[in-house]
Design brief:
Structural class: alpha/beta
Order of helices and strands: EHEHHHEHEHHHEHHHHH
Radius of gyration: 20 Å
Number of strands: 5
Length: about 270
């Protein structure tokens, strides 16, 4: 029987799948792949808001009932998936909808993985170059869109998933929601994995666990063909730091531009 649900809502290419699979080494936590339960309660909210049947009844009673529906719906879903006491669900949308989740599941524990933006962009560019056989919508020679590395960087920073994630992050900070979220730097997870995991468990309010960082099995399974060339959810078994390749891949000029334009991010997360 599921007792508590935790939430992970991270930047793309920042180690969110790795974190889920590290956590999955525990016998008491079910760690989801990219999860769609947020979409279920989000769609239910739209129907609750617009349906005449709800509007025609006592508004406070209906609000109370809808909050119960959302909470019990999440627990009902995961109780059919696992018999473990804890669940950590991964979706990029949880943090921006913190207030909505908080309305039916008070003081939710949310984790957000972050990473040096230059290295996130470097990872995206590597994926782009590694798939020359695939037609990427980012590239349009007729419109001269996405035809160079700097142009692709501009595109990734202005559209989902990275641009959207960063916009949401700025709004979370602006509203002060960030004080309720536990941010984890990808670099810290790979360099100091046990210390980082201990801090995560302290935030979640559950017991610590000694992980095997030399042999992280892939427990989350996803059909990456549904996500395109950037949706790689396959992890390395060994948790270890990766040397930054951003300057070689993106160029020094692009890296300098990113550093200057995301000074707020670098200051917030000590990059």
């Amino acid at each position: 029987m599921v007792e508590k649900i935790f939430f992970q809502s991270s930047l793309p290419r920042s180690g969110s799948t790795l974190l889920q699979n590290i956590i999955a080494q525990r016998n008491d936590i079910y760690a989801t792949p990219t999860d769609g339960t947020l979409e279920l309660v989000f769609a239910a909210r739209a129907n609750y808001t617009e349906s005449a049947e709800f509007k025609a009844q006592d508004s406070e009673l209906m609000k109370k009932a809808f909050m119960g529906f959302c909470k019990e719906g999440l627990f009902g879903f995961y109780n059919q998936v696992t018999d473990k006491p804890y669940v950590i669900t991964k979706s990029r949308g949880w943090t921006i909808h913190y207030d909505f989740v908080n309305s039916f599941y008070p003081q939710p524990k949310m984790i957000c993985m972050v990473r040096d933006i230059k290295d996130i962009l470097c990872s995206l560019e590597k994926k782009y170059r590694a798939n020359p056989d695939k037609q990427d919508p980012i590239l349009n020679w007729a419109k001269m869109s996405g035809t160079t590395t700097p142009k692709r960087v501009d595109n990734w920073l202005a559209q989902p998933p990275l641009g959207l994630a960063l916009e949401r992050l700025t709004e979370i900070i602006r509203q002060g929601i960030d004080k309720n979220i536990h941010f984890v730097r990808y670099e810290d997870l790979t360099m100091y994995p046990q210390t980082t995991m201990t801090m995560i468990y302290q935030y979640l309010g559950i017991s610590d666990f000694k992980h095997d960082f030399d042999n992280v099995e892939q427990s989350t399974q996803e059909d990456d063909s549904l996500y395109g060339i950037y949706g790689d959810h396959v992890i390395r078994k060994e948790v270890k730091p990766l040397k930054s390749d951003a300057e070689r891949i993106l160029g020094k000029d692009v890296c300098k531009w990113v550093k200057e334009n995301f000074a707020w991010y670098n200051q917030k997360f000590n990059y």
